[in-house]
From TrEMBL:
<feature type="transmembrane region" description="Helical">
    <location>
        <begin position="310"/>
        <end position="326"/>
    </location>
</feature>
<dbReference type="InterPro" id="IPR018584">
    <property type="entry name" value="GT87"/>
</dbReference>
<feature type="transmembrane region" description="Helical">
    <location>
        <begin position="200"/>
        <end position="220"/>
    </location>
</feature>
<feature type="transmembrane region" description="Helical">
    <location>
        <begin position="145"/>
        <end position="166"/>
    </location>
</feature>
<protein>
    <recommendedName>
        <fullName>Arabinofuranan 3-O-arabinosyltransferase</fullName>
    </recommendedName>
</protein>
<comment type="similarity">
    <text>Belongs to the glycosyltransferase 87 family.</text>
</comment>
<keyword id="KW-1133">Transmembrane helix</keyword>
<dbReference type="GO" id="GO:0016758">
    <property type="term" value="F:hexosyltransferase activity"/>
</dbReference>
<feature type="transmembrane region" description="Helical">
    <location>
        <begin position="333"/>
        <end position="350"/>
    </location>
</feature>
<keyword id="KW-0812">Transmembrane</keyword>
<keyword id="KW-1003">Cell membrane</keyword>
<feature type="transmembrane region" description="Helical">
    <location>
        <begin position="286"/>
        <end position="304"/>
    </location>
</feature>
<feature type="transmembrane region" description="Helical">
    <location>
        <begin position="259"/>
        <end position="279"/>
    </location>
</feature>
<feature type="transmembrane region" description="Helical">
    <location>
        <begin position="121"/>
        <end position="138"/>
    </location>
</feature>
<feature type="transmembrane region" description="Helical">
    <location>
        <begin position="366"/>
        <end position="386"/>
    </location>
</feature>
<feature type="transmembrane region" description="Helical">
    <location>
        <begin position="98"/>
        <end position="115"/>
    </location>
</feature>
<dbReference type="Pfam" id="PF09594">
    <property type="entry name" value="GT87"/>
</dbReference>
Length: 419
């Protein structure tokens, strides 16, 4: 009897087979990324500057002493972020780093669970193991753990914010953003979502929490003004290394400023057009609007701003996961070509063809983010033009086959089984 309990179950449906196949792959991939890749680390170490800053803060020594002339990771958090990171330096750096890796891995897993719930999916769906496997196979999660960056915790905060925003828990949603703003403002573009939805209370905690933490941290810091004098000007400049923004890549490859601005302006116009169409025709479709507009705002801030790094792409998981929605803008092959470009852990630097390989590797994220913007804008504009031609703008711009009166989508049965 006991041996029969240990006997592996045989999948009787396609969904069962996929679940039984994917969960071991997902679990072993998570363990490999955390125990092997992350613990081994890399020459790029984002944790060391944070630990050193936390240690200096606890000992009342200057924090903002980085040499911005080097290409080593720099400490860029404001005093509020230093205050929040200070507990890391209570123990030795090696164990502290391991704990931080574990915290980020757990945060990613919890964030992925919340992402499933955002789309009314459960852990028993086939989407769950596929999502975990894909996420931990990506560059963004892998390098977040290897470099020991805080992006995993930022992703968790993003998911908490989106869920609470949709449930109209405004103050708590703002608190999730506010904690991240106290460290780094990478999610700042998402503030536009509650503004256009009339959820003004989000601003109270989103802005209030970092302000309060800075008020507390300022007198405890040895050199808080150096953050304003030295660090803030550096953050606002485009650097020509480890930077996938248009400005950063343009500087690296020596493009003339007018050409850099041309690309930024053209893509900026596409973003504005897409955002207008989303607000005009989809703001009542709350989940679709929030994840699509939010993803578009984030990728635009990295691509068109001064700094965009590939591992920020973890914050685009909600947009990518929106493929389960029937009206998603991600249901086409160019969208997934873009996803491959900004999530892949593949290295395209072919040393036999050194120059070509280097160019592909250094531009793949920039091109992928650009393609994503083109795809989102292209899908929405195409829907608008078709709806206008067919005279049904008053009822929205979703394809006609999505209307209740249309024939049921033959792929809907597959989508139902995913859930």
């Amino acid at each position: 009897m006991f041996s029969r309990l240990l006997e592996p179950r045989t999948g009787r449906t396609t969904a069962d087979v996929i679940r039984y196949a994917m969960w071991p792959l997902a679990i072993m991939t998570v363990l490999h990324r955390v125990i092997v890749k992350a613990v081994d680390g890399s020459i790029t170490d984002d944790f060391r500057p944070v630990y050193n800053a936390a240690l200096a803060f606890l000992n009342n020594r200057p924090v903002y002493t980085a040499d911005f002339g080097s290409v080593d990771p720099h400490y860029l958090y404001p005093p509020s972020g230093t205050l929040l990171m200070a507990p890391l330096a209570v123990i030795d750096p090696e164990r502290s780093r391991w704990l931080f890796i574990g915290a980020n891995a757990i945060a990613v897993l919890v964030g992925l669970y919340l992402l499933l719930r955002l789309f009314d999916l459960t852990l028993s769906s086939i989407a769950a193991p596929i999502l975990v496997f894909a996420a931990f196979s990506s560059e963004t999660v892998t390098n977040t753990l290897i470099f020991t960056n805080i992006n995993g915790l930022i992703f968790l905060a993003e998911m908490v914010f989106l869920l609470l925003l949709l449930r109209r828990r405004d103050l708590w949603a703002g608190a999730a953003l506010g904690v991240t703003f106290a460290i780094k403002p990478v999610l700042a573009p998402l503030l536009l979502l509650p503004l256009v939805r009339g959820q003004w209370k989000v601003l109270v905690t989103a802005v209030g929490i970092p302000l309060v933490l800075n008020v507390v941290a300022w007198p405890l810091s040895a050199d808080p003004m150096d953050y304003i004098r030295r660090t803030m000007p550096y953050v606002g400049e485009a650097r020509d290394y480890y930077n996938s923004s248009i400005a950063g890549n343009g500087l690296y490859f020596g493009l003339p400023d007018p050409l850099i601005w041309f690309f930024r302006i053209v893509l900026g116009i596409l973003v504005l057009v897409a955002l207008w169409l989303l607000w005009r025709y989809y703001r009542e479709d709350e989940v679709f609007f929030v994840v699509t507009a939010g993803g578009l705002l984030l990728v635009a801030s990295w691509l068109l701003g001064s700094l965009g790094q590939m591992y920020y792409s973890m914050l685009l998981f909600p947009l990518v996961m929106s493929v389960v929605l029937k009206n998603s803008v991600m249901r086409n092959w160019p969208a997934w070509l873009a996803v491959y470009g900004f999530l892949t852990f593949d290295n395209w630097w072919v040393h036999r063809f050194n120059e070509v390989g280097r160019n592909i590797e250094y531009t793949k994220t920039t091109l992928a983010w650009s393609l994503l913007i083109v795809v989102v804008a292209g899908v929405l504009v195409s829907r608008y033009l078709v709806a206008r031609k067919e005279g049904r703008l008053e009822s929205g711009i979703d394809p006609a086959w999505l209307s209740p009166a249309a024939t049921r989508d033959p792929d809907e049965r597959t989508e139902t089984s995913v859930r």
